[in-house]
Design goal:
- This protein has 282 residues and is mainly alpha-helical.
- It has 3 domains: 121 residues, Orthogonal Bundle (Endonuclease III, domain 1); 74 residues, Orthogonal Bundle (Endonuclease Iii, domain 2), CATH 1.10.1670.10; 56 residues, Arc Repressor Mutant, subunit A, CATH 1.10.10.
- The chain has 15 helices and 2 strands.
- Strands 1-2 form a two-stranded antiparallel ribbon.
- Strand 1 and strand 2 form a beta hairpin.
- The chain is globular, with a radius of gyration of 21 Å.
Length: 282
Amino acid sequence: MIVDWYATAARDLPWRRPGVDAWAVLVSEVMLQQTPVARVEPVWRDWTVRWPAPADLAAATPADVIRAWGKLGYPRRALRLREAAAAIVERHGGVVPRGVPELEALPGVGTYTARAVACFGYGSPQPVVDTNVRRVVARLVHGRAEAGNARSADLADIGALAPADAGRAVRFSVATMELGALVCVAGTPRCAACPVRNECAWRLAGCPPHAGPPRRVQKFSGTDRQVRGRLLDVLRSARHPVTAEELDTAWTDPVQRARCVDSLLTDGLVEQTPDGCFRLPH
């Protein structure tokens, strides 16, 4: 039922369209980590035109990659994606590998991303578990309002629900993610629109509230993440190394600013020139 629902309810996202290769799927999955679809789509389009194959990204400078990443957040992902592209060129002849173990061995690629690329990029039936999928399974199977912490049994849970037919199993993986993103959402789910509402253990139990600790909402204002972003904004817009005084304009608190500059240097997102200026890595 979830697969049939997906056929008419799915969002038209460019990385889901026919003809999109595994490299473009990998780029989309890395960009979508902790980042809304609306922010990812225009950047993904630019990246796949500019760097349509792993070899193209591997040949780019870190500075170009960081600039192209823009304001997606967590910019270390951009460098890891470039490292993954280089590994694909060196180890796999420039072709994204098909196997989950080979994908997991790439820099910055974990269990979820590896399975997503194998499934959505190559049509290999895989249980693909993200936060949305875990929430659907928690309610549908276990009768819990929220999924709680990740469990080793998560993959087995979703695998047990997948259709036996390989093609439908692939569709089921993306359909379950979509159901969690659009209908079985955190907080107030849209149960009336759910295709499996009559089988949902949580709904049949009367929708009991979450019994665990409240979900922590990540703040952004005033955090080091915001400061790092401000500093990178200055460096992305500059075509020449900038002085420490120019970076001072990005944030008023000198202690927090200095801490964030140090962390950017440690992460390889910024480098310091011999004369004490700062620039994106070359």
